[in-house]
Amino acid sequence: IVKITGCFDVTAAKVATFVPGDVVYYDATIGEAVADNSKAVLGFAIAEKKSSSTTVSVALMPNIEKDAVK
Question: What is the percentage of the chain residues whose pLDDT exceeds 70?
Answer without folding.
Answer: 81
